[in-house]
Design a protein that fits this description.
mainly alpha, 7% strand, three-stranded antiparallel sheet, elongated
């Protein structure tokens, strides 16, 4: 019985620590590798690979030991390749068919 209570208490402490780190993450502008992995849902090893190949915007500390990310740049990087919806493609195709390719397209309302 006592072990069960201790296990439940430990689970609550762990949950509290997770909530605390997520709350702090929401207030930071400069993110560590761990923060960036938590924010993006990507593994730290994948983020290291992106840094190595310069596929992601990042910053290094003065000695070059630590890697940091700007929250806004990281969000922009995650959303940089948008795909059109079928409705947008159909509207664009209809505009091209009616007005030609070089005319200004009418937005779908």
């Amino acid at each position: 019985m006592e072990n069960e209570i201790l296990n439940k208490m430990q689970a609550l402490v762990n949950e509290f620590e997770s909530l605390k780190s997520l709350t702090l993450l929401g207030t930071k502008k400069a993110l560590t590798m761990t923060d960036a992995a938590l924010l993006t849902g990507l593994s730290k090893s994948y983020l290291y690979k992106c840094v190595c190949f310069k596929n992601i915007p990042y910053y290094k500390s003065t000695g070059g030991k630590y890697t940091y990310f700007d929250r806004d740049e990281l969000n922009a990087w995650m959303l940089h390749q948008r795909f059109k919806t079928n409705d947008e493609i159909e509207t664009e195709a209809a505009n091209i068919a009616v007005f030609g390719k070089n005319r200004k397209l009418v937005k779908n309302v």
